[in-house]
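Regression test case RT-17, inverse folding.

Input:
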């Protein structure tokens, strides 16, 4: 049995349970659950989506990181990138003595300081095949927290490469998960991949499949988003669709449909399956959170607040869904974005990477919807509700609601 690679935990959940509860539990969220996902504080009514916050894969990754610290208390502990896309969880791990390995100017993770004495955690997003082999060569202990849903996508992409299909991945080419997924094609000689960010990019590729055109222009457009020496003229004859697990489910399905129709138009309906494969690889947790927020938006709401890391793909997509439904939406990283004294909020606008500050954001608000990305712990949701109530001058009413018999 390999004692340098661990994937199934160390059986120390009871040893870390108290610490996890102290770090991430929330009495406010507990009150939501007791009250049917609703909470009232004076004139404010809060509604929490039925599915929110930490998913199974994130829970597992965080627990496994805590277990790793308990299992190897005296050894140096490192993490490849971030365990998940939440600044508070990552900061907590740093406080526990976990060293974060970063990418250098060349885009590669710097493993030069690692020795066989190190214990290295691989994040929920997974790592590329190249990085995995580099870590194995060091001889350090490896703790793999890669999410099971991500592993399912890897198997699909690997099967495409094995059978001579180019993997077309709906995702963000710079995202850790997409990088790791794309690397799976290298298990087979001639494995190819192409990453498309949205329907507009997918349509460019589909038009080329159907009509041909300037391959050099397309190559320039997708620079850094393909496998090396990608041949647009030849490598798009047979494609298989996959996706980053946290993308918008509806868009992923629509992109798959576009590619299927393009292949049918190019080669004939009878030959569609010879040139096209597709499987829905959006993870169930992502789908459930998107479905839950859509259900919540059927209720009358004055404001939708989405809590989670700005670099969290699934959180950003939840915010995009809310905004697309015409509900005023505020995506905040945490409660610290809310300035009670100034009556303002720092937030990240939809499809933006730059924070903005809004004043008077609670004027006329009575019904507030809430959701949180799959990497957002419960305590950050609870702190947000407290800060909103403080800003609205109803903190005392919230405390009465939270006090049994109050």
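Golden output:
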């Amino acid at each position: 049995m390999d004692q340098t690679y661990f994937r199934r935990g160390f059986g120390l959940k009871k040893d870390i349970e108290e610490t996890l509860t102290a770090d991430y539990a929330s009495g406010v969220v507990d009150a939501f659950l007791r009250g049917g996902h609703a909470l009232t504080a004076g004139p404010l009514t809060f509604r929490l989506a039925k599915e929110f916050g930490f998913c199974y894969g994130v829970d597992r990754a965080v627990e496994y990181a805590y277990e790793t610290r308990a299992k190897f208390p005296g050894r140096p502990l490192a993490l490849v990138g971030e365990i998940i896309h939440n600044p508070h969880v990552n900061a907590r791990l740093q406080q526990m003595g976990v060293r974060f390995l970063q990418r250098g100017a060349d885009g590669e993770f710097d493993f030069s300081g690692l020795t066989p004495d190190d214990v290295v955690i691989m994040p929920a997003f997974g790592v590329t095949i190249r990085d995995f082999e580099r870590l194995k060569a060091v001889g350090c202990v490896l703790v793999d927290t890669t999410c099971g849903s991500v592993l399912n996508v890897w198997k699909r992409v690997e099967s495409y490469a094995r059978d001579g299909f180019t993997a077309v991945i709906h995702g963000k080419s710079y995202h850790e998960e997409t990088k790791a997924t794309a690397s799976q094609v290298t298990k087979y000689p001639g494995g190819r991949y192409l990453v498309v960010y949205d329907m507009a990019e997918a349509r460019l590729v589909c038009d080329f499949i159907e009509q041909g055109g300037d391959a050099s222009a397309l190559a320039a457009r997708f620079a850094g988003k393909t496998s090396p020496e990608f041949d647009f003229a030849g490598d798009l004859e047979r494609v298989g669709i996959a996706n980053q697990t946290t993308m918008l489910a509806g868009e992923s399905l629509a992109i798959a449909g576009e590619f299927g129709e393009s292949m049918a138009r190019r080669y004939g309906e009878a030959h569609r399956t010879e040139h096209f494969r597709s499987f829905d690889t959006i993870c169930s947790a992502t789908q459930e959170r998107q479905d839950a927020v859509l259900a919540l938006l059927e209720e009358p709401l004055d404001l939708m607040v989405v809590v989670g890391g700005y670099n969290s793909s699934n959180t950003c997509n939840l915010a995009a869904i809310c905004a697309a439904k015409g509900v005023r939406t505020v995506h905040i990283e945490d409660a610290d974005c809310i300035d009670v004294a100034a009556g303002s909020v720092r937030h990240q606008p939809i499809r933006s990477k730059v924070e903005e500050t809004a004043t008077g954001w609670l004027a006329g608000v009575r019904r507030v919807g809430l959701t949180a990305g799959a990497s957002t712990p419960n305590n950050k949701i609870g702190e947000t509700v407290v800060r909103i109530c403080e800003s609205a001058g109803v903190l005392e009413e919230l405390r009465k609601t939270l006090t049994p018999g109050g």
